Amino acid sequence: MEFMDKSFSEAIINGNNQSIAKLVPEGSEINKCFHGEFKIKSKSKKNVFPFITDPTPIVLCILCEQSQTLKYLLEKYKVDLFQYVGEWAPIHYACCTESYECLAIMLKNKSFQQKIDIPILSSINETNDFKTTALHVAVTNKRYSQVILLTQNLIYAKATTALEFLNQNIPTISHIDQKSMSGNTALHIAVYLKDLEMCKILISGEANPNIENDENISPLAFAKNHNYSEILSVLRNNLLYSRDYLLQKYFSKEFLQEYKIDCDVPIENQLKAKFEDLQSEIIDISAQLSQLESKL
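-> structure tokens emitted (296 positions)
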């Protein structure tokens, strides 16, 4: 078993899907943690976590930025996308890596999307609604693409249940004004970090600059008190980026094509197109059911 774990973990780190297929039978549950400390070898070579202790296969895959292997694991095996490793769930790890692709892949899962604000364990507080979410992690780590994925209606999830099927054209986004364990919104954090670009992205996602933290200070007031003139101008005048600008700046053409995200098409038209596709799927399914019934 130890040899298999080592071979399996090495296959994940190196993104070797063929080796994984030979080692682990299709349909297996792969949520058991590996044992020991693993050196992270991310494809971008920018490691927020140099090492990880006792990771699940999914978390190891995310930290190594092996997006194609993550997609393979989700397609072939029984995977728990909400299993914590330490204090963090997979979404939190995906929001601190250089690559945004693993987060996008997981957002294709409707159940995952509906729990987009799953908290870091240590931030859960019974006395208030404060909790640290993936959005706070992404903002703190200056992961602009991940913040856009979390706060814009971009990824249409694949349904796995009848109810999800009916609602699959309604993307779920992160609560942009959620207060973290420390009582700050994502916009508070961006202003504290003096991150002008992040402030613009969050304002584009309709973040509220007037919400006060637990010290009764709003992002707008903090920017004013510290004379952050550029940020203050953005917050006061609601200077936001267009959706097309964000897509073209932070995502590759290949990514936009794969996820069928159009830069120059209004979101209403995209929803209409998705609905028409859904109607076609229903017609096809009805035809298949009729054929089956005729054979009974």
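DSSP finds 17 helices and two strands in the chain.
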